[in-house]
Amino acid sequence: MFTKAVIPAAASTALLTIAAITPSQGTSPSPNFAEDIAPIIQKNCLPCHGPNGIGPFDFTTYRKFNQHIELIRIQTLSRNMPPTHSSSDFGQIAEAPPLTDQEIIALQGYIRAGLPEGQPLLNPISGPQKHETQPTKVFKPNSPLPSRAEGVMYWQTATFPVAEATHLTSISITPENPRIVRSAQFYVASPGTNLKLIPVNPNTLITAPGVTPLGAWAPGFPTWKLPPKTSFTIPKGSLLIVASKIQPSGRSQSTNFSLNLTKTTQPQPNAAEIVSFRNSNFEIPANEAPVITIGKTFTQPATLIGLIPKARFYCGVISAKVTEPNQKTRKLLELDRWNPFWTGNYQFTKPVNVPAQARLEFNFTYYNDDRCSMNEFRDPETVVSGPRWEDEVCEMHLLISRPR
């Protein structure tokens, strides 16, 4: 989904750099749609901007793409699209990483050359073939609620009782209507959790006692999937909770989806688990931008599969780093434009080995000034941590594995 384009000073500097390395005209053939632009669309755009994607436009043909070329030019130059905004010293995290300088240069050259088509494509552009593991169990909500006819995005929950111990290896959802169900968060509630504590319409995330975040589903992000020989055991009597984000369309529509689980009959040699860090008692003074740090030194080695940050609308930047026993520090994750509307699975392509005595540190930067949309049309006031819409949250949950 396209958002308002803002080109900050840092982005302006990046654009000058891009302009400086743009090839002069005449040194090479102008980029054309079929050979140069279609591969960029296939790689970066189709998770959202396909025929049934959540994006507002379909980019699968030359004509459809060029209908929005000025907006595309602004959004790609400002690096607002794709909206992942994540980086790590340990390689790719998001499935749709930001455009490279070379890809932006190609788009610029294509526009300056007058949008040459090249050899006309016989068929619409299709996404790359994915070879996903077939789910071994599929569930659907018992009584899915129809979407509200009007209003802003909101979240609603569906719960799935776990009748027997389940050794999970992957989880995802398939929305019946992708334009209505825009993304989803997965949680596990421990046996005996009071169902009354799980809100039907949560405030962007669930913070009830006994409820642990597990991961997420969103177009453009990888499916929640564990490495080989690794499983996450959900005890009998637990609840799987799906909090889906609903986008009203102006009329009541289905919010139904399929919950897809892949599991094994026996626990795998490596046990996945969630390790949680949080600050539950803080405040953000008006017109200030504090950084809140949480973290821990690992006494035992572990394999880090991914990170699950949780914050609301006052948070702007989230970063994570690891300092190894030899004092070498590396960036695990940096999200330079945090937005709870755009969250997915921040899982590493290759899991990260964390040695014993390594220090993990997570920094959350909060903006309680005019940089925060919550302060639009009002003077900032002190914000506190808590469960309300106007409160804030500071949590980081690690998906790790260790030998059983």
Tags for this model:
globular; single chain; 5 helices; Jelly Rolls; mainly beta; five-stranded antiparallel sheet; 404 residues
Question: How would you describe this structure to a colleague?
Answer:
There is one protein chain. The protein has three domains: 9-112, no CATH class; 137-268, Jelly Rolls (Sandwich), CATH 2.60.120; 272-403, Jelly Rolls, CATH 2.60.120. The strands form four sheets. Strands 2, 4, 7, 8, 10, 11, 14, 17 and 20 form a nine-stranded mixed sheet that branches. A five-stranded antiparallel sheet has the order 1-16-15-18-13, with no helix packed on it. The chain has a four-stranded antiparallel sheet with strand order 3-9-5-6, with no helix packed on it. The chain is globular. The chain contains five helices and 20 strands. Helix content is 12%, strand content 33%. The protein is mostly beta strands.
Can I get a quick summary?
This protein is mainly β.
Protein topology:
Blueprint: H1 9-20, H2 33-44, H3 62-66, H4 69-77, E1 86-87, H5 101-112, E2 137-139, E3 154-161, E4 166-175, E5 181-189, E6 211-217, E7 224-225, E8 230-234, E9 239-246, E10 257-264, E11 270-278, E12 283-284, E13 291-297, E14 302-310, E15 315-323, E16 329-335, E17 346-354, E18 359-366, E19 383-384, E20 395-403
Parallel strand pairs: 8-11
Antiparallel strand pairs: 1-16, 2-10, 3-9, 4-7, 4-8, 4-10, 5-6, 5-9, 11-20, 12-19, 13-18, 14-17, 14-20, 15-16, 15-18
